[in-house]
Amino acid sequence: MERPKFPDETIRRLPLYLRCLNRLIILGKDTLTSKELSEFLGVKPTKIRKDFSYFGDFGTRGVGYNLHELVSEIRNILQLDEEWKIAVAGISNIGCTILDHLEFNQPGFQITHAFDQSPELIGETVRGVTVRDVEEIESELEGKNVKVALLAVPAIDAKSVANSLVSAGIEGIINLAPIFINLPEEVEVVQMDLSSELGRLVYHLTNR
Amino acid sequence: MERPKFPDETIRRLPLYLRCLNRLIILGKDTLTSKELSEFLGVKPTKIRKDFSYFGDFGTRGVGYNLHELVSEIRNILQLDEEWKIAVAGISNIGCTILDHLEFNQPGFQITHAFDQSPELIGETVRGVTVRDVEEIESELEGKNVKVALLAVPAIDAKSVANSLVSAGIEGIINLAPIFINLPEEVEVVQMDLSSELGRLVYHLTNR
Question: Which residues of A touch B55 (CB under 8 A)?
Fold first, then answer.
């Protein structure tokens, strides 16, 4: 069966739904109505029903949603049953914080490679991964089936490191450097930058 | 003159344009065509022209865009001529990294308050700001005209700390905790979460 295309906003919410649903199952819950889920998830019932309606017909009227089915469905949509290998480029500051954050929050992803350009960091082991020189990105990643990278190097180095990542077969990049990078069309880039989000927040506060 | 509403994607790009344009001015540039700007900004000329077209008529055919006028206009749109005070709640890990990041990258914003719940951190000075107990959010922020907060506490505490921030008069929150928070309609919340962006990236990689 062809699955419908999910809106970006729904997709963004799924990982956080998943995290919360897993906790609820550990706490012994099996079935919850959208109203109950709303309390736990911090999202309005109408929005939950709308998001879940893309999955097909799940909820049972008067009984609610089966949490196990929801978890299995979300894992399936996000393709988390295969483990995604991740390369991190730039681990000195925000990159390292993100390694921590990811480790505790994200099933389905495993950081397998780390790169930096600082001589003090190269050769060190950070959360079980040996840090390699950014110069070795292509040779290290060759044939390793790593498709996703976090780019957390300083803005001035972002372009050249991103190009190495793409040459090494990376197909998707989360760019934490505060600069845009023009990459081939077929590479997916997600920009994640605090100044952008602050700018947007302030714009909405002053234009409402 | 009534200004048009800018699309979210354009607004998100403006802070990064601003950062790059300021650097170009320091390097002695005054006027650049959209093609030249494209090289520096890492954004396609068509997208730049579209983004800048919302400002009104700026570029001069055959000459290009006046960088000083662009900077002044972007600062004006993002309301950066007034300085925005920011409160950070949760400074132990990702919050602290973000303090650093912000300090170096973001004119127009100043971190004036920091809160945490860890006894080891309360009373310490982090980047010139004394860390206060999250219990004191309301009393500390009262009458201080702080409208924006970064929420970087652990997920389990996010709801109660967010409620304190809203009671203290905060109107916009960047939520770095990996959990949704249901707040009154009039509070703007921007969710900034790595697992959400990773989920979205992987979804697009597998559904194209």
Answer: none
The predicted model gives B94-122 an average pLDDT of 75
Nearest chain B Cα distance for residue A205, angstroms:
7
- Cβ of A198 within 8 Å of Cβ of B41? The answer is no
> Residue A188 is inside which H or E element, if any?
strand A188-191
Residues in chain B, total: 208
What radius of gyration do chain A's Cα atoms show? Answer: 20
pLDDT tens-digit profile of A138-156? 999 999 999 999 998 888 8
Rounded to whole angstroms, how far apart are CA atoms A111 and A174? Answer: 14
Interface confidence, given as ipTM, is 0.83
Report yes or no: B180 at the A interface, CB cutoff 8 Å.
yes
Q: If you average pLDDT over residues A163-171, what whole number do you get?
A: 97
Which residues of chain B form CATH 3.40.50.720? 84-196
Select from A13, A79, A202 the Cβ nearest to the Cβ of B202.
Answer: A79
Which residues in chain B touch residue A202, judged by CB atoms under 8 angstroms apart?
A: 78-79, 84, 148, 172
pLDDT of residue A9 exceeding 90, the answer is no
pLDDT of residue A1: 46
pLDDT value for A182: 87
A148 inside 8 A of chain B by CB: yes
Residue ranges of chain A assigned to CATH 1.10.10.10: 8-77
- In chain B, positions 91-130, which contact chain A (CB-CB < 8 Å)? 93-94, 97-98, 100-102, 105-106, 109
**pLDDT given at position B1:** 46
According to CATH, the superfamily of the domain at B84-196 is NAD(P)-binding Rossmann-like Domain (3.40.50.720)
Q: What is the CATH code of the structural domain delimited by B8-77?
A: 1.10.10.10
Strands A31-32 and A65-66: antiparallel
C-alpha–C-alpha distance, residues A51 and A6, integer Å: 9
Q: DSSP per residue over A156-207, as a string?
A: HHHHHHHHHHHHTT--EEEE-SSS-----TTSEEEE--HHHHHHHHHHHHH-
| A54 close to B (CB below 8 A) | no
Which pLDDT score is estimated for A147? 95
Q: What was the pLDDT predicted at A103? A: 53
Q: What is the pTM of this model?
A: 0.82
